[in-house]
Amino acid sequence: QLQLVESGGGLVQPGGSLRLSCAASGFTLDYYGIGWFRQAPGKEREGVSCISSSGRNTNYADSVRGRFTIYRDSATNTVSLQMNHLKPEDTAVYYCAARTHSGDVCYESELEYRYWGQGTQVTVSS
Questions:
Q1: Distances (CA, A) of 83 to 60, 69, 90, 94, 122
Q2: How does pLDDT run along the chain (126 residues), one tens digit per residue?
Q3: Which residues does 44 contact at the CB level (< 8 Å), separation at least 6?
């Protein structure tokens, strides 16, 4: 059973940066399509970014495009989300999710993902 662990969350001032990482033990994440999602207090979970298992395709929510970057690091078997120019509205619990048989497809819906991490808190506040 694939288990995902997120790390890198924390408290940051507006305009600052954080890098979230999604790691798995015993499985190679290169074979999985990965999505990052977030859920703010009182709101539904929303998609933030995704990357296909091939790594050739990525996508971003309009609210983060140009500020966030998703990428794979095969050497460390992680998928990271570099978050720059953070805003208070980015405050949320961030989750990574994985699915098999992604190929070149970047899945944006949380319904497409079978495996989920426990989440990491990101708080953007002065």
A1: 12, 7, 9, 12, 10
A2: 889 999 999 999 999 999 999 999 888 998 999 999 999 999 999 999 999 998 899 999 999 999 999 999 999 999 999 999 999 999 999 999 999 977 888 999 999 999 999 999 999 999
A3: none
Q: Both tokens of residue 64?
A: 């983060």
Note whether 38 and 46 are within 8 A (CB): yes
Distances in whole angstroms, Cα of residue 107 to Cα of each of 7, 42, 46, 88, 125: 22, 25, 13, 26, 30
Q: For residue 55, what are the CA distances in angstroms to 29, 79, 85, 107?
A: 11, 10, 24, 12
The tokens describing 31, both together, are: 């074979």
